[in-house]
């Protein structure tokens, strides 16, 4: 008997306890060598007033075992609660969210019988940084944070994953036609790192048309790498069009820890009825077994699961009278899988994990030569509702500080002064761009002096963003219409 691996287990909320019980039963019956530390997280803690949904003792377990099998949890709406899923991924540095999605035609009804793809979603950055502010009465803001090391880690992971699993093509999805700096960086790093993988086909699509192609012709994709929010959305779409969101598993991989779960949520509307599909969590658990070095057990379970699906034994979410043979609940489904342990599927390809996966290296890129950073101006954001863009522009022309001049005012990104259009709708949130009068650099003292002038002229500034160039190239976007 091989040595047991200690893992941390959370039963979660809603359908969580039912599908976790079914999954662990299958793992035990298959001979998985596991020691389980059970932690309590989620709704019960939230309702006790623990705003994070997790207590220090649970972190201790996670940091000790470094492997987490987690059932879905319910995040209460509003009330200042933070998403435990997002927190766990970020606190443990689980930067890669791996979501395989394939169809099980002809046993599970799908319009896409040849679909077999893996979505690799960046897990730590993007709008999920959760940095939001109410800035004026009318305007709220959410910061989209993208870092070069973050892009490098996830993109290299995607290429290495494709190689390790014999995939031929890696597709990058971004919206860099609009977000030229943030999504633009992701795309640029994809092109740079992609050069090191001449054996793999590479392509980039803008996320909107990319998602449309995914929904229409998913078989054209192999590995998809994308930013956090897009990855979240397209992986639910992919799981659904493959057959059911109830079937998709997900691995969250970091350099030191890993978390395995279903892609779906806690499905409160069917909780406690014993009808949920445990397959999503089971697929997460199969990935976990491969990760912790028990690939034979993983393959045994996967093949038994495929045999069960082939036998037409289906839970309600995938049951279709024309193709299914028997509609079962969570428990019965688990029993059917257990009964088939040791069997190989007849029609589906037999799964073997013995030789895979090869180790995936995600070295941090060598620091590229530091670029010369120059401060050349400042965007001052104002909360102001006393008139039109022209009124504000004309007034601010007089509120200047030595070396800085007002060049533009925008509202929600659109230039409204000078020469704005009367048709443009304006809120109470204004970005006033001041740049160096002589086209050179400015100092922090000049910016502070400008802010003091703006404040004493009676304006409420919300925040500033410094305007910098890097090796002479602007590190900021221009106003739309500027
Ligand atoms: P959901 O995924 O829970 O449910 C969406 C739909 O799919 C529902 O109709 C549900 O009945 C069905 N479904 C989901 N899993 C199923 C399964 N295993 N078997 C059969 N049917 C299944 O999404 P939601 O309703 O938007 O979210 C419910 C709660 O889950 C929310 O509180 C949300 O915050 C949370 N959530 C948690 C996670 C996680 O823990 N990783 C992920 C997503 C959502």
Automatic annotation (TrEMBL):
The keyword Manganese applies. InterPro entries: IsoCit/isopropylmalate_DH_CS, Isocitrate_DH_bac-typ, Isocitrate_DH_TT1725_C, Isocitrate_DH_TT1725_C_sf, IsoPropMal-DH-like_dom. GO terms for biological process: glyoxylate cycle; isocitrate metabolic process; tricarboxylic acid cycle. Keywords: Glyoxylate bypass, Magnesium, Manganese, Metal-binding, NADP, Oxidoreductase, Tricarboxylic acid cycle. Its cofactor is Mn(2+); Mg(2+). SUPFAM superfamilies: Isocitrate/Isopropylmalate dehydrogenase-like. Its EC number is 1.1.1.42. It catalyses: D-threo-isocitrate + NADP(+) = 2-oxoglutarate + CO2 + NADPH. GO terms for molecular function: isocitrate dehydrogenase (NAD+) activity; isocitrate dehydrogenase (NADP+) activity; magnesium ion binding; NAD binding. Signal peptide: none annotated. Residues 6-337 form the Isopropylmalate dehydrogenase-like domain. Belongs to the isocitrate and isopropylmalate dehydrogenases family. NCBIfam families: ICDH_alpha, PRK09222.1. Homodimer. Catalyzes the oxidative decarboxylation of isocitrate to 2-oxoglutarate and carbon dioxide with the concomitant reduction of NADP(+). This is Isocitrate dehydrogenase [NADP].
């Amino acid at each position: 008997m091989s040595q047991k691996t200690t893992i941390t287990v959370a039963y979660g909320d809603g359908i969580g306890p039912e599908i976790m019980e079914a999954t662990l039963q299958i793992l035990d019956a298959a001979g998985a060598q596991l020691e389980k530390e059970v932690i309590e997280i989620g709704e019960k803690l939230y309702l006790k007033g623990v705003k994070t949904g997790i207590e220090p003792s649970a972190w201790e377990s996670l940091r000790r075992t470094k492997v987490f099998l987690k059932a879905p949890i319910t995040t209460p709406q509003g009330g200042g609660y933070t998403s435990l899923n997002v927190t766990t991924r970020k606190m443990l540095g689980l930067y890669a969210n791996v979501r395989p999605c394939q169809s099980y035609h002809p046993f599970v009804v799908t319009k896409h019988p040849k679909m077999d793809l893996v979505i690799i979603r960046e897990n730590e950055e993007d709008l999920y940084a959760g940095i939001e502010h109410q800035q004026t009465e009318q305007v709220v803001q959410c910061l989209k944070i993208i870092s070069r090391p973050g892009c490098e880690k996830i993109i290299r992971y995607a290429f290495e994953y494709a190689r390790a699993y014999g995939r031929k093509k890696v597709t990058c999805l971004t919206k860099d036609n609009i977000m030229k700096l943030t999504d633009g960086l992701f795309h640029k790093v994809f092109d740079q790192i992609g050069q090191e993988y001449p054996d793999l086909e590479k392509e980039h699509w803008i996320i909107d048309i990319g998602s449309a192609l995914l929904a229409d012709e998913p078989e054209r994709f192999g590995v998809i790498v994308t930013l956090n929010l897009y990855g979240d959305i397209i992986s639910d779409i992919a799981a659904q069009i493959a057959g059911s969101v109830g079937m998709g598993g997900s691995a969250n991989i970091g350099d030191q820890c890993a978390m395995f779960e279903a892609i779906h949520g806690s499905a409160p509307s069917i909780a406690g009825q014993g009808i949920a599909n445990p397959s999503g969590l089971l697929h997460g658990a199969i990935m976990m077994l491969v990760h912790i070095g028990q690939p034979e057990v993983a393959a045994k379970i996967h093949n038994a699961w495929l045999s069960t699906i082939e036998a037409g034994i289906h839970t309600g979410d995938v049951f279709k009278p024309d193709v299914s043979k028997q509609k079962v609940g969570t428990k019965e489904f688990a029993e059917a899988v257990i009964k088939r342990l040791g069997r190989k599927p007849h029609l589906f390809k037999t799964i073997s994990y013995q030789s895979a996966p090869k180790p995936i290296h995600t070295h941090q890129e060598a620091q590229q030569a530091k670029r010369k950073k120059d401060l050349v101006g400042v965007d001052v954001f104002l909360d102001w509702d006393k008139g039109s863009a022209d009124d504000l522009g004309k007034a601010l022309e007089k509120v200047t500080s030595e070396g800085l001049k007002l060049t533009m005012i925008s509202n929600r990104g659109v230039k409204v002064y000078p020469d704005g259009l009367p048709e443009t709708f304006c809120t109470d949130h204004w970005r006033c761009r001041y740049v160096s009068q002589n086209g050179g650099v400015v100092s922090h003292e000049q910016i502070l002096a400008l802010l003091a002038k703006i404040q004493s002229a009676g304006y409420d500034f919300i925040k500033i963003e410094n305007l910098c160039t890097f090796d002479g190239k602007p590190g900021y976007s221009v106003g739309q219409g500027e």
